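Apologies for my clumsy wording, but are you able to produce some protein sequence, whichever is easiest, and the tokens describing how it folds?
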Amino acid sequence: MAKDIRFGTDGWRGVIAKDYTFDAVQRAAQGYATYIKNHNKTAMGVVVGYDKRFHSENFAATVASVLAGNGIKAWLTQEATPTPVIAYAVLTQKAGGAINITASHNPPTDNGFKVRDENGGAIDPDGLAEIEAAIPDSVAGVSSMDFDDAVAQGLIELFDAAPKYIAHLEKLIDLQPIKDAGFTVMVDTMWGNGAGWFPRLLAGGKTRVLEIHNHRNPIYPEMERPEPIQPNVDAGLAATVANKADVLLITDGDADRMGLGDEKGQFIDQLRAYGLLAYYLLEVRGERGPIVKTLSTTTMLNKLGKLYDVPVYDTGVGFKYVAPKMMEVDAMIGGEESGGYAFRGNVPERDGILAGLYVLDMMVKLNKKPTELIEWLFAKVGAHYYDRIDSLFEGDRAAVEKQIVDAKPETIGGLKVTSLDTTDGFKFNLEDGGWLLVRFSGTEPKIRVYTETTHGDKVPAILQDGLRVAGITQ
């Protein structure tokens, strides 16, 4: 039944050959095609892209065939293409939206189905609900066309999305100083779509770019999944030290997220990375404008907002909340705890490539190595410490939610609880300005426990108290 396809914080994902089948993909594509037609965007066409997971190119061709069968032109990328490039292609092709076959950072067993609007950004929750409701119960409700016939009739067109995206990047940032800086840049592309992009963008100068995990290998050796957090990034961190690189840039499986490592081979967590990017835009580039953040990311942004007199907006977790808010308030930057950052002047979509270039530009402009950049940030807002624990969960969600609400802890990790925010999950605000968040994943059967605090020595205790509040034993 249609209810077996549900869109989480960033689209629908499932286990290949179990939930994620060609029949299911056809049905999901039909739901999106119906949505496009209902919004009078049939004549605009839809961009279709894909990642390097198992069968992704074939799932994408299936999607294109369904769109064609509905009289909607499919602009199909000619190769595996980063998500931010696909998003920007929505603008260059003047399309009505995009479908992206990717499970981003999920395990190798999974694949996914991301949808985007005419701005290249995530579709809001109401739109996702409308797409879900339009998904037929079986393939009998799907209209499709033979792929070759659709190509012959011009309803499917293969194209290269890269040149226009690169030209766009060159308007946002002057790459020449980075090329001339003489950096050694280590890049871990996590076997994904980011492979080859930084060498291509930074060629022709003194800077060297070294890549690892830059081939297609959908089982993702040396990592559990292509997610730019530890321990998945440990091989990249070791390579940074071995090659005496100045910085490690990490892109996830579809290159919309960015991770960072410093010149000493230490991971820079996503909250610090977000703080750095916002501070760079405000202080180095002199930009001003609202900051949008999910409630699971750093309060360093709130401090920067006060210092620079710019508003900061909190949203639920996921770019389906961040992107619409960015559009609404013309935000300077938007981002989330998982390492996804979007920027004004670009599409309202996470962009791991542009984020990495901004980090390199920051290093050039300030003449600082990554460890010095963190010191620069902390000198402004104070030291902040973050960690998270993910736990598999297949029990009674309602019972766990009730247990969390009923717990009413007075302290967590030895810090007084000042309030509880239930916007998305259960966020316990703490007396130091830090927080503990307990929430269910929107794309996987997991419960996540996160914290940020100004007390580095209290992080383990806060997380353990969070697990106890949720009734989880490890």
Observations:
- Residues 22-38 form the longest helix (17 residues).
- The chain has three domains: 2-164, 173-288+350-381, 385-469.
- The chain has 16 helices and 21 strands.
- The longest strand covers residues 385-392.
